[in-house]
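call fold(seq) -> tokens
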Amino acid sequence: MPLTTSGTASRQAQNIDIFGFELSDADLAAISALSRADGGLFGGDPDRHEEQ
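ret:
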């Protein structure tokens, strides 16, 4: 069970409701557009990545 940072029961219930939303076709298309044909995202190279 995830830990919440809220002390009120009603807010904890909101935090744990991970299925309380729906994605539209436009949302799904926008998410799908982020990926590339090679399976990568955003052009990052894990062998050359440095933390900021």
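The two ends are 32 Å apart (CA to CA).
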